[in-house]
């Protein structure tokens, strides 16, 4: 276990002193240590501007103890949002916990492209495959007040976290959670108006090269997409025409190097045609959409 250095501020020290200590402790990170130090303290004070506007204030002992603990956890490469317990996504904030995939900003483009494709149409039945912390299904329920969502995940922890988020964000009455392998439990004549998923898409052989924050703290089953990273997509594409209603849309997140697979003949789905591939905020291939009929 990494031990705190002797230079840690004492009781009654100012916020600015703790920030300097935090920056020094986090200097081993590949990211900007000053930013990480500020962001952690901003979370504790529930005010992202506090590191600038309140830096001369004394940090209370109970908060300084929490901050010191968080800095040491981050120093050991525990992900920032697992430490704080929540992550912003679109206009909301979602709880996360060990055993769930941490939502990334690029996933927001899935919801944004779905809204663009649907235009003014409102889906009634939404299917969220591998729901994780529930960010996709819940975000769409917030956008479509009359819709209902079936959220499926293989693991218990993501479903518990999703339920917590659904309750906090006021959509629990419109979402139903099911544990298991979706392809084994869903009838292929369900007729969903919208299917969304952020599936595992990293090739098995590439997992060992991931950052420690991902490799050691995020669930492998949410990352490992098989030998070429495309196992989930092939399973989905095989049953997609039966799962979608006429005019229904399916949208999935993909790896940034997987777009050409979907642009080729391999991405064509009978009854749904060729998919559309959209970029994320960095201009990288990120979202694939099919529309039935």
Automatic annotation (TrEMBL):
Its EC number is 2.1.1.297. Coiled coil: none annotated. Residues 115-206 form the Methyltransferase small domain. InterPro entries: DNA_methylase_N6_adenine_CS, HemK-like, N5-glutamine_MTase, PrmC_N, RF_methyltr_PrmC, SAM-dependent_MTases_sf, Small_mtfrase_dom. It is an enzyme of class 2 (transferase). GO terms for biological process: methylation. Pfam families: MTS, PrmC_N. It comes from the Bacteria. One of its GO terms (molecular function) is peptide chain release factor N(5)-glutamine methyltransferase activity. Residues 17-85 form the Release factor glutamine methyltransferase N-terminal domain. Keywords: Methyltransferase, S-adenosyl-L-methionine, Transferase. It catalyses: L-glutaminyl-[peptide chain release factor] + S-adenosyl-L-methionine = N(5)-methyl-L-glutaminyl-[peptide chain release factor] + S-adenosyl-L-homocysteine + H(+). This is peptide chain release factor N(5)-glutamine methyltransferase.
